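Hey,
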Amino acid sequence: MAEIYRRIKSLSEKYSEFTAENLSKLVRIQSLSCKEEALSIELKKQMEICGADDVIIDGLGNVIGRLGKGPAILAFDGHIDTVDTGNINNWNFEPFSGKIENGFVHGRGSVDQKGGVASMVTAIRILKELGIARDLTIYFVGSVMEEDCDGLCWKYIIEEDKIRPDSVILTEPTNLNIYRGHRGRMEIRIAFRGISSHGSAPERGKNAIYAASHVALEIEKLNEKLRSDDFLGKGSITITEFKSGSPSLCAVADFAQLHIDRRLTWGENEKSAIKELESLITGLDGAIEIPVYEEKAFTGLIYGMKKYYPTWKLNENNPAVVYGVKAFEGLYSNKPKVDKWTFSTNGVTINGHFGIPAIGFGPGNEVMAHAPNEKVPINDLVIASAFYAGYAYSMTK
């Protein structure tokens, strides 16, 4: 067993330049959510070059490569869409340069999370060369629209493509630690109705802004009372947008709306979060709703889901975690840190909705996600590609 890990590690180092060059190509292709077509074509090509047995682009635009036809099914996931650059003046280099310099690949998406995708591609090459995948069916997924709607891509893969893995490795950045969960989240809107009147006589109307403001202050207090979990930490709630409307700026507002970001720790869910807010709007003309995401993929398909993304975590003795620890120890002779993400991933659907065991392991530090001057260490890419191949080997044993 030690010998196969040594060979995996050796090949990951041998292909370090190959991995970095592939990532550079991916970074140079801009791929905002719903606009990933050019990147999907490039990634399909990279998977084919590395020897994938089959590669398709599905109806939503996800790139799905396959190795092997064994009874156990393992999947690797890396989303190929990115956020935009933000203020370009905050960057010290061209965000889509894909520059390889001083041991890093630079650019938007290098950490979040094309670096994981490029490492996953190299893992195909390693697994193919060593013949490890014969006892498994392994899917390598370049997923779309994650930045806009976490997990939508995997909802489609499971429900429409009819692919349901036994376990999934999320290649989001983990600073080369193994992650076994994160808080869930949901978006919530509370709309308030008022009655307009002339601004010179506000007593004749009912100002929706006042009702919304009252609830906004109560939400601020609620944030301090939310439950906590020893592993995932505390739940949170905050208002991210306040809208209002009136017939004119000389009239009492007859409409107001709060948009809420709710982070859910263990034991919190959609029903409990809504119940908390219902108690705050008692006696007010307010209505609570969870928005639905319905945007058109680059394929032309409109496929949506409610913006509720469940909390998930695995126990440390879950086989998915155990295989990961075993693979890392086999490759690098030391025990990896097992931790959690601060942000949200496709795990909200994979494990949160469908209960499929999932862990995370990816190159780069999540503090670089969505930040200017994003860059990933090439050595991280090497270790990640070795880990992915090593995990597949651990699973066969």
